């Protein structure tokens, strides 16, 4: 399937359209975001009681329990992936002016496409692990040993190692570069397997090619996202400071009454923006209905 390369400024366009998408279609997209986020919290409802019990009792989690927690989180992560795909379908319907209902996030399960999407998730997980292994090998094995020490210290409620391993900052830089690539790779691939009806391997191939052809706009997207996060963090911090002053005058309960809805609204806005960016990235790079003149397209 053809993939297109876009100019560097396209990254800012994806971010702009992703932010505006949720506010153009608030009812289906914010409602769907609530359902998907609640489903994503299910693993926490299962594993948090065990972690709290370990914390209050002062005894570390046995390796078997820790392994079960990781396995449960991974399994639920794969089972929730079709809901992410359903949310992309919901966004696609809303943007095209088609009927869009909140319950459409479960559509991949109803249509029998969940297994293919889970297969895509398994493939992506294997690719992530392979990329991480390449970074560790390229920077030396000290990082893996250091990370195991960190996990052991956390499990035993001890302070982490005081020194960083050799090659740590090089590994961080490589992971950041890979993260930018994977951001585009994952978005394009999930769009292809969900909206483009591609096979798992076809979607992975399109994701790799599409991300490689759009590294510059992906970099601009990452820069724009960081700048917006800084602005949002500053605004949120100023608002929290004002609430703290109000709480001293009126009562601390006012802070909780106002800050919790604001925090939930911020989470929903971040969720809809993230999937809005993913959708418009896929649509510009792979979709067949791009308006003429809006993309500098080169097909493969």
Automatic annotation (TrEMBL):
<protein>
    <recommendedName>
        <fullName>DUF4013 domain-containing protein</fullName>
    </recommendedName>
</protein>
<feature type="transmembrane region" description="Helical">
    <location>
        <begin position="226"/>
        <end position="246"/>
    </location>
</feature>
<feature type="transmembrane region" description="Helical">
    <location>
        <begin position="168"/>
        <end position="188"/>
    </location>
</feature>
<feature type="transmembrane region" description="Helical">
    <location>
        <begin position="200"/>
        <end position="220"/>
    </location>
</feature>
<feature type="transmembrane region" description="Helical">
    <location>
        <begin position="66"/>
        <end position="87"/>
    </location>
</feature>
<keyword id="KW-0812">Transmembrane</keyword>
<keyword id="KW-0472">Membrane</keyword>
<feature type="transmembrane region" description="Helical">
    <location>
        <begin position="253"/>
        <end position="282"/>
    </location>
</feature>
<feature type="transmembrane region" description="Helical">
    <location>
        <begin position="29"/>
        <end position="46"/>
    </location>
</feature>
<feature type="transmembrane region" description="Helical">
    <location>
        <begin position="117"/>
        <end position="148"/>
    </location>
</feature>
<keyword id="KW-1133">Transmembrane helix</keyword>
